[in-house]
Design a protein that fits this description.
Cytidine Deaminase, domain 2, 8 helices, alpha/beta, six-stranded mixed beta sheet, Ubiquitin-like (UB roll)
């Protein structure tokens, strides 16, 4: 039996340690489905279902819709609301968000087929994904001046300090948005790496902060193609990950001019694309 509060679930577990066991309460990251529905042209249609940690649902939906090209600005999304349909079980209504598009704006649901973006193993799908991105009117990644490597090295500790749910559960990913000087501007957590990024992008969209020029994204896991896609469409010039990037993520970064840093942990990192945006040891003009 478990109890849930926000993004946390508490339940009793048997814990084995040093040859003995005990009973105790443990906290887990809550994972529940979120259904996204579009309201456009007088109709409401289901768009997608994603597994997520409850909280910041409107930001998650807004970021998802922006990353997929459904909306381009805050004005395109005049309404976000949880379901109030009386035919839906009351306990599940918080797991449904209706996104109302501005009059005249429609979405091509066939183009939003997620399997193209989710496949990282198929070369043909990867090529199609990159070509599809070229048809988007995305802001060019802009960074005013190179970021000293010391600033990059400090980012994981700053993000970890902001991960309240991770500290309690140990089971959540995080995405952090930083200024070029390394100041943490916003952080979001979720069981899904992509959801954490969507929540950040949605926060920026709903607060009219897009594009995210001259800013840095740090994700707590690996850098997948979809993470880079979301970062690129939001105008982010520098993406860092504490783990490895995928080959398609590197291809995207190099093709579209995004700086990509991986294995950022324990005082080290690798630069896979856009080396000119990071001042490495020995570069002229580095921070002293």
């Amino acid at each position: 039996m478990s109890t849930r509060t926000g993004g946390r679930s508490r339940l009793r577990v048997y814990s084995v340690r040093d040859g003995a066991f005990s009973q105790r309460l443990d906290e887990l990251a809550t994972e529940e489905p979120l259904e996204i529905r579009l309201e456009a042209g007088g109709k409401t249609v289901p768009l997608a279902v994603t597994m997520r940690t409850p909280g910041d649902d409107y930001e998650l939906v807004a970021g998802y819709l922006y990353s997929e090209g459904v909306v381009q600005s805050r004005a395109d999304l005049p309404g976000l609301s949880h379901c109030i349909d009386p035919t839906v079980d009351a306990e599940q209504r918080h797991n449904i968000v209706n996104a109302r598009l501005r009059p005249g704006l429609t979405a091509d649901l066939r183009r939003l087929d997620r399997h193209v973006f989710q496949s990282s193993a198929c070369g043909v799908c990867g090529k199609a994904s990159l070509e599809q991105l070229e048809t988007r009117a995305c802001p060019a990644p802009v960074l005013g001046r190179p970021v000293p490597y010391e600033v990059v090295l400090e980012l994981p500790a700053k993000l970890r300090a902001a991960q309240g749910l991770f500290a309690a559960t140990g089971g959540l990913h995080a995405a952090g948005l930083f200024s070029a000087a390394g100041e943490l501007l916003a952080a979001r957590e979720d069981v899904g790496r992509h959801n954490a990024v969507d929540k950040l992008v949605g926060w920026a969209l709903l607060n009219d902060r897009l594009p995210l020029s001259d800013q840095i994204l740090l994700v707590s896991g690996r850098a997948s193609f979809e993470i880079l896609q979301k970062a690129y469409t939001a105008g982010l010039p520098l993406v860092c990950a504490v783990s490895a990037p995928s080959s398609l993520a590197v291809d995207l970064a190099r093709r579209f001019g995004v700086t990509l840093v991986g294995f950022l942990r324990e005082g080290r990192f690798n630069v896979y694309a856009g080396r000119e945006r990071v001042l490495l040891p020995g570069d002229a003009g580095g921070r002293r």
